[in-house]
Each structure stands twice: as C-alpha cells, then as structure tokens.
Amino acid sequence: MTCDELKKLQPRAPPAAHVNVTFFSFPFTRHTSHVTRHFFMDLAKVTCEQFAACLNQDFEIVFSDGTLPVKLSEARPLGVRPESIREPFALTFVAGRPLRLPQGIYKMRHAQIGEMEIFLVQVAADQATSTFEAVFN
Question: What is the per-residue pLDDT across 51-110, written as a single tens digit (0 to 9) for each?
C-alpha cells in the first residue's frame, strides 16, 4: 500500500446526531445517521485503567479494503499533570509483521469495546514486527 492510498483512508467525521452512553465501562458517543449506527469511544474520557483491561488482546486497524491485526502490548501512565483533565497515558500496539504506516488518525476496532479513532505514531519496526503508540493527554 502506498502513502497516497493510506492518506485516502483517513476516517470520516462522525455524523452530527449523538447521545452519550456508557458501554462496557467505557464512555461512548452513539452517532447515528440514516445509513448506519455506530458506537465511537469518547476518547476524551477514557482512562489508562480501562485500556489496561484489554492488555494482550487483539485490536484491528480498519482500512477501506481490509484490516490489520494488532495487539495491545502496553498501557502505561505518563504521570499526573496539573493542566490535564485526566492522567495522561500511552498505549503501545504491536503488529505481527514489518510494515511502515504514516502517523495519523486510524479507525480501530476491538471485539468488546467497539470502534475508536486513534492517532497512531509508528515508534519501531524490525524484521518481524511493527510497533505503534498512541498518547492521551
């Protein structure tokens, strides 16, 4: 896949109508449109502990033509900051193959918690794996 193809995969903005709900102890916003109904995780309210419950579980990065399986390998707090609404934390995802993805917002999916849009940065790659990080301030 080329960089131009990946740029086209930027997630679309969710529809305007929404209702705030809690789902599997994660805050979500339920966006509705005339075509589909989706649960999008409200990333402004999630905590490190909520993701830590999903350690070593499979997530998928969703592309228009398929998915890339990744595993949540780490959920670590980054220390309390007075200016932060919540305690900042970082998530580390590992793909079981070597590849390069540009940093950006990717739609991700988890079997229990649903879909979310997360800004991922590739932080490592070797002969067998690729590692991505998301930081929540």
Answer: 999 999 999 999 999 999 999 999 999 988 777 677 899 999 999 999 999 999 999 999
Residues in the chain: 137
- pLDDT tens figures, 26-49: 444 333 333 344 455 677 778 899
What does the alpha-carbon distance between residue 74 and residue 66 come to, in Å, rounded to a whole number?
Answer: 25
Domain ranges of the chain: 47-136
Q: Which residues of 16-37 are buried (b: 16+ CB within 10 A; e: fewer)?
A: eeeeeeeeeebbbbbbeeeeee
Structure tokens at 27: 């805050």
